[in-house]
Amino acid sequence: TLWCGLGTGELQVVEFPSWRMEARQLVHRQRMVCLARVSDNVWTGSLDSTVGVFDVRSRRRIELLEVGDATPYLIEGDNNNVWGACLNGNVIEWDSHSYQPRRQICMSDLLGRKCRVFNLLLVEGNLWCCLGSLVAVLDPATGRLKKRSSLPPPAPGGPARRPSAAHRSPH
User: Fold this and answer.
1) Contacts 24+ apart (CB under 8 A), 62-66
2) Which of 37, 133, 136, 160 has the most beta carbons within 10 angstroms of its beta carbon?
3) What is the pLDDT along the chain (171 residues), one digit of tens a residue?
C-alpha cells in the first residue's frame, strides 16, 4: 500500500500490485508536506498548520490536530510518541494513542541560537535532529539536549565534481 500526499491537500491510497486507487480524501486546506507511518496510523502534516491521523486498515481519518503557527514538515515516531519538526524551529511531541500534545521543544532556546530543524530521526532511543550545520541529540523522555556537534564546513569548491571529458582518463 502506498499513501500519497498531494499538493491539493488530498490523500490518495494506492493498492499494489493491483494498482487499485481508492477515492481521494480532502484532508488539509493547503499542500500536504509530510507523511509518516507510525504503528497502525499514518500521520500527515500540511502548510495549513494541521496534522491528520489516519487508521492504516480502515483508511479513515481518526483525528485532525491544529498546531497553531507551528507548521509541521517532518514527522517521526515510535509506538508511543510522535515528533514533528515545525517551520518555526520547534519540535512537537504527541502521544501516539491519545493524539494529545505532550510538549513543544523550542530548539532555538535549547541551543541558544535561532535554528530550524531540517531532519528528525529516532535511533536507539535518541531523537537526532539535523539543524543545518549542527546535529543535536535529544533524550525523547525529557526533551533535554544530550549532545550537540557542529558539522565540518563544506570543502572548498563545493560538492565533489565529476571530471570533465577533457580530464577523464581513457582507461
Assistant:
1) 62/99, 63/99, 64/27, 65/94, 65/99, 65/101
2) 136
3) 899 999 999 999 999 889 999 989 999 999 999 999 999 999 999 999 999 999 999 999 999 999 887 777 788 888 889 999 888 888 999 999 999 999 999 999 999 988 888 889 999 989 999 988 899 999 988 999 999 999 888 778 766 554 444 444 444
Q: What is the pTM of this model?
A: 0.80
- Cis, peptide link before residue 17, omega less than 30° from 0: yes
Distance CA 81, CA 96 (A): 5
For cell 507510525, name the residue. 38
> CA-to-CA distance for 48 and 40, rounded, in angstroms?
24
Pairwise CA distance, residues 132 & 116, whole Å = 7
